[in-house]
Amino acid sequence: MGSMKAFFNSILNVSVAAWLCVCMSVGSVVLAFLGATRAGEWMARTPNLVAVGLLTLGLGISGLRAISRKRYDSSLFHVGCALIMAGWLVGQVAIRTENRDHPVNGMMAMIDGDRSDQLFKGPRLDTFVGRVPFTVALEKFTVERYPPRQADEEGAVKEYRSRVTITEPGKAPRSEDIRVNHPAYVKGFHIYQMSWGSSYDALGRPVQYTVLQFIRDPGLPVVYTGFAVLFAGILWFASRFFSLKKGGA
Amino acid sequence: MDLKETPQGFLIYVTMAAFLATAILLKTRWKELGRGFWFAGFVAALVSLVYRGIHTEHPPMQNLFEFFLCMAVALWPLSRLSRYQTGADTDFQDAVLGLIILFPAGFVFSEELRRLPPALQSPLFIPHVGSYVAAYIILARSAFMALPLFKAVGPLLPGDPRYGELFRADAVSRQTAAMGFVLMTVGLFLGSLWGKICWGHYWQWDPKEMWSLATWFMYGAYFHCRLKFGLRSPLLLAVLLWIGFLFVILTLTWINVSRLFSGMHTYA
After folding, report:
1. With an 8 Å Cβ cutoff, are A21 and B228 in contact?
2. Which residues of B touch A36 (CB under 8 A)?
């Protein structure tokens, strides 16, 4: 037991933490240069998931150890970070084990009156991803605009709104408005107003279509728990600094 | 570089003139007059921001121009707060900082009015951007407060003739950095939450997110070093605070403007 404690103290100490912070800071800058897509793909590779897992473990142990030192803000802070990373790992596992009955991310392009439970991906939305365990029918898609500031221009878009009817098996259908910043939540899926465009229907009449994005992330409750713990920690930390006496720190 | 020949531009230049007068007068024997100008500068900055908000018909936090106006307003209250908390007199330093901040707002950034797109219509808009405005200003002030620490060579010992000054510089810069770090964490956390609600993911590996995270980690390194070494290496602490501040400057300028880092956060 004593040797294990010594081992943990030798790899989980303040100097190591400072170095890790510097390394991750530099690493973040490197990933910023790669751009979002490549950075995300690189982070999802197995060695990086293992590294994040080890870091999660280290942060968790450090956080729990801080309780015995009565540094409760530090404890909440480190445990919160560990939970957020653990939740991210759960999400990554879900992405890797995704199949047609359990998709994690896909889209539906719809015009008024369409009904579907099938998700697609790809630039032309023609690659089948899987089915969601409910159906979505688009009642009406509307685009609202601001009044134009000059008479000769079209006003900027104020709101995209997809009014949908969601039918879960064994339940009464319900209507929901999906807007930017107002996703719907159905059976583990968040449904987002993602995009829209103009096209023609089968008879050659002009129509507006909406693109809804469906995202399932089983790690999200863990991430949100981490957010809450981290937030509690930062408030504790702040209160400690605000309660310092005048002139001292 | 161009002059803004508009009421908005006039308000910005009045604020800058007041900040300049503050900085000059505080170095003369008319210090009280300088403090008067300092408060007048704050009022002018506030009027400028409110005017912008009314003119653009949304909270003035959409682009860099509006972000910098917000930062200029935050200076005077933060100056008062840190005097109340630590007794440090940072009026001169903050007035100079105000001049530097308002320079791009007055002469570089466009004041073109833009409607708030759907993505920015959220109750999290003001808290997310507001905590970053305050955090960046506070971290800049912390870096300036740490300047005396660069004079230290080797560990700081109680017998040192500059012990009092350097001890104080460390204490106030650390307390200020802590406040900035708290706000930066809150901004990161709110941004993450908003990202999930608006874009579908709480983390997108977006270049601006990565730079913010890099800044956050740099201050994390500072606090761990402060904990580990204390005043045994004041120079290291000053260097870390200035690297953090450099990251803040880069985030506000290069990362926002450069196409190299375009991504989800391209509103500016």
Report:
1. no
2. 204-207, 263-264
Q: Please indicate whether, in this complex, the C-beta atoms of B179 and A26 are within 8 angstroms of each other.
A: no
Between chains, do B85 and A244 touch, taking CB under 8 Å as contact?
yes
Residue A152 has pLDDT above 80, yes or no: no
pLDDT along chain B (268 residues), means of 10: 88 96 94 95 96 92 90 93 84 93 91 87 91 93 93 82 88 92 95 95 93 96 92 92 95 76 69
Q: A25, B117: Cβ pair inside 8 Å?
A: no
What is the spatial distance between Cα A189 and Cα A104, in angstroms, rounded to a whole number? Answer: 8
B265: phi > 0 → left, psi -120 to 50 → alpha, else beta; which? Answer: alpha
Phi then psi for A189, rounded to 5 degrees?
-105, 130
Q: What percent of chain A has pLDDT over 70?
A: 96
Q: Which of A28, A192, A234 sits opposite B185 (nearest CB)?
A: A234
Interval A59-70 mean pLDDT: 91
As a dihedral over the C-alpha atoms of residue B105, residue B107, residue B109, residue B113, rounded to 10 degrees, the angle is 80
Going from the C-alpha of B8 to that of each of B15, B16, B76, B155, the distances in angstroms are: 11, 13, 20, 50
Both tokens of residue B33? 């007059």
ipTM of the complex: 0.91
CB count within 10 Å of CB A66 equals 19
Q: What angle do CA A136, A139, A141 make, to 5 degrees?
A: 105
Give the residue among B140, B267, B262 at the shortest CA–CA distance from B211.
Answer: B262
